[in-house]
Amino acid sequence: MSRTVNLLDGNTIPAIGFGVYQIPDDITERTVSQAIEFGYRRIDTAAIYGNEGGVGRAIHTTSVPRSELFVTTKLWNDEQGYDSTLRAFEKSLATLELDYVDMYLIHWPLAKERKFVDTFRAFQKLKADGLIRSIGVSNFTRAHLEELITETGEVPVVNQIELHPRLAQNEQRQFHASHGIVTEAWGPLGQGSTLTIPEIMDTASELGKTPAQVVLRWHLQRGTIAIPKSTTPQRIESNLDVFGFELSESRMAQIDALDNGDRLGADPDVMW
Ligand code: NAD
User: Fold this and answer.
1) CA distances for 129 relative to 53, 55, 76, angstroms
2) Which residues of the chain have pLDDT under 70?
């Protein structure tokens, strides 16, 4: 199992990254620094998380070269539109104190506002200017993706969506695969809720792994990349240690069967 996944645009992305949603800015630097020490090479933040500054400070203080790190940030909803996207990106880049970001995502489609195509065109300009390396989206449904691809002629390389054993997103994953889009799971552990499911706990104790490692391994074996979040050093470290074991077909099938369509976050079809 490779630690990186190839993107359509020729770039590569580490399969497991570190998510920083709800980590206060003042502890983000320390937490991200720990994650980098433990071997994470990908950090997932967003303008709305209010901690791009802490992420940037951790990147500046680590001895790991910038070229070995993959930094993702996201454009927040009220900044959608061509000019406002360019301005919002400039602000994110300044807060991160970086020269470029590896991937920029449209955080939510906001389909009713009809701005995601213009927003995407601004992303294309940022890429042409060398300020972002890869263009992705988040929380896009199949219909949003179809419209985006038809209008712009370009396929976003990643779609970051809510995905965990209770929301396996099988149809959406198939659609992504048919277009070469990499599926990235947010809330990969179901924000902690999947870790007490008996089948997952059983598999974990059989294999001598944590429930989180089992769930993250399930993602990897399905070809999904993931960004688990934790502020506990031991958990941060063990969540990355998922490349040295395998789930059998029957264990995979048992976890696949846990899908009941339960969403923790907003439904992109009804949000705005
Ligand atoms: P998650 O599924 O990563 O779960 C995080 C929670 O699980 C933590 O608060 C912690 O309590 C628990 N946890 C983590 N590791 C554990 C372990 N080893 N043992 C026991 N408990 C453990 O949920 P998340 O933070 O919502 O999602 C991960 C990342 O996805 C975020 O940090 C953010 O970067 C991204 N995200 C994106 C969107 C979006 O709309 N694009 C939305 C939410 C989150």
Assistant:
1) 23, 23, 21
2) 272
